Amino acid sequence: MQDIVNFLVQHPEVLEQVIKGNASLIGLDKDQLISITEGFKEWESIGRRVPVWG
Amino acid sequence: MNHFIDVEIPNADLNRTLHAFLDAKDQLHFSELAFYHYQSFGGTDTDAAETLGAGIELLILAFDIFDDLEDEDSPDEPWMKINRSVAMNAATALYTLGIKVVSSVSNDPAFLHKLIDYILQSSQGQHEDLRGKPVTEEECLDMIKRKSGSLVALSCVLGTMLATGKFNPTVESYALQLGIALQIENDYRGLFYNSKSDIVKNKRTLAYLFLKRKFNQSSIDLLKVFENEDKIADIEIKCYKEKLKEAGIPQYMYVMIQLAIQKFKRGIAELELEQEEKKWLASFLLNKFDKED
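YS: structure for the whole thing
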């Protein structure tokens, strides 16, 4: 997943098409695909959950 | 929880010490996990569920203390402000008391077996973390699953077992994923704690492993900051956040959280519960950790 995320960070134009559903990423399963689209759409909310471990 | 300390620990000084430790605890997420699983799977003995929850929270507090002592984290916590040997012994008492309280709710050997099994899994994950063993993403996820996922599984599985008398592998499976999601979130938050930055300590978190790939200049810059300056306080927080974003750290970690959540949701969908009950449980488990209280 590191390589895919890095590629999409470096190529926002591809990311935009993936999120819109105009481009697909080969070799990923359904969970991975959803995680990437959801993850890139909402990553700014990271760290806002209730802390669980100290 | 105070009640169990008073019953089992007559030694006045240790008793006071444990109450002080307990007072520092402001969250009871793990007992809620056990309690709501107990309810969702048809349990009706509220006293037993509350005792289970109390025992689990005592155990979790003991693990938190061990973790801080091992990592030399959280200087403001009461156990970090006293003699380390005294703190260690008090945590051991708390840990033992936790096991005693949890095991008091069931005579089923399988219940006790699961309790011990998750504790041992978590200890092994912690060992790998302390040793800095994970090198790959997969190894890191496995370490997180053992270290943190096991404790979430302990709560969810024992709550379910107390209600049904049976081990439910589906509950174990999604609870492990929930634990992974929560730990990654915690690791992200840890990037901003100056005194306990995991990266400064070269801990093998997903963030560290991603930076170590040196995909871009920002990753290299951040690694230099951590290695040379030793403190993130020296960079402005805005600039630091921007560097993390340019490096792809929050995006990567959030994608990994989503991956664990997808697996969690699939697990919940497999439960043999009414649709409404599944929806409620999923929403409760996710929202519980999704909102600031």
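YS: worth flagging: The CA atoms of residues 114 and 154 of chain B lie 8 Å apart.
IM: good catch. Also The interface with chain A takes residues 27, 29, 64, 67-68, 73-74, 77, 137, 148, 182-183, 185-186, 188-189, 192, 209-210, 213, 215-216, 248, 250-259, 261-263, 266, 288-293 of chain B (CB under 8 Å).
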